[in-house]
Amino acid sequence: MPGSHGKERLAELLEEGAGRLGIELVGSARDKLALYGVLLEEAGRRAGFRPPEDARVLVGKHLLDGATCTLAAEFPAGVSVVDVGSGLGVPGLVVAICRPEAEVVLAEPRGSRAGFLRWAVWRLGLENVRVVRDRAERMSQSGARFDRVLARALAAYPVALKMCLPLVGAGGEFVAMLGPRGEEEVAAAGEELAKAAGVVKRVVRVRLPWGMGERVLVVVGREQEE
């Protein structure tokens, strides 16, 4: 069943919005992101939610918002990525589509959402994505480490630091997607950041298209022992 706004409409908005953000959608990225938007609409209807009347909400606040991670961090070929508490796949699935040479893990403990993610990965034909039903704490205890750790709406920033930094491997980065007061959240979490041996490497502020608000991306690395 097609999405309420249609794949073609979503593709048009993706091209327009990505251009405003300075994000290049190469290859089949635009069309796959549009299909992903359709799948999100379908999932929402099955759960009893009506898709937003304005398709720009879906594209701007979710699809392109997830893509802003590519403005804050590099995702070269072979880089290992984990999206912690992936939910319905933002930002992990978006990054996997935009950077098909990255190896992406979507970590989601809730069974219904993990099921949706597996279905979406299959529908999108993504071969660089693996879905695991697990929590960050258990993954880090088992020794899992990644080059890039992503989190959006996971928990309060200090809590997200405690959950995600242990998953960051040597030379890796934790990209936290925060709201418009992100700098204040980082300043207030100085003690937690020090305890976790983390170092803020970059703070990137992005204005989402069509007045959809602002996103602050905070990139944290780990202090390396000599």
In short:
Helices cover 43% and strands 23% of the residues. With 226 residues, it is of the alpha/beta class.
Task: Give an overview of the whole structure.
The protein is an alpha/beta fold. The chain has a domain at 69-222: Vaccinia Virus protein VP39 (Rossmann fold, 3-Layer(aba) Sandwich). The protein is built from 10 helices and 7 strands. The chain has helices spanning 7-21, 29-46, 55-67, 69-72, 92-98, 111-124, 136-141, 157-164, 182-188, 190-195, and strands at 80-84, 103-107, 129-132, 146-152, 168-178, 198-207, 214-222. A 7-stranded mixed beta sheet has the order 3-2-1-4-5-7-6, sandwiched between helices.
Largest sheet: 7 strands, mixed
Rg over C-alpha atoms, rounded to the nearest angstrom: 17 Å
Low-pLDDT stretches: none
Structural class: alpha/beta
Mean pLDDT: 93
Strand order of the main beta sheet, please?
A: 3-2-1-4-5-7-6
Content of β-strand: 15-25%
CATH fold topology of the domain at 69-222 = Rossmann fold
Task: State the order of secondary-structure elements, H for helix, E for strand.
Answer: HHHHEHEHEHEHEHHEE
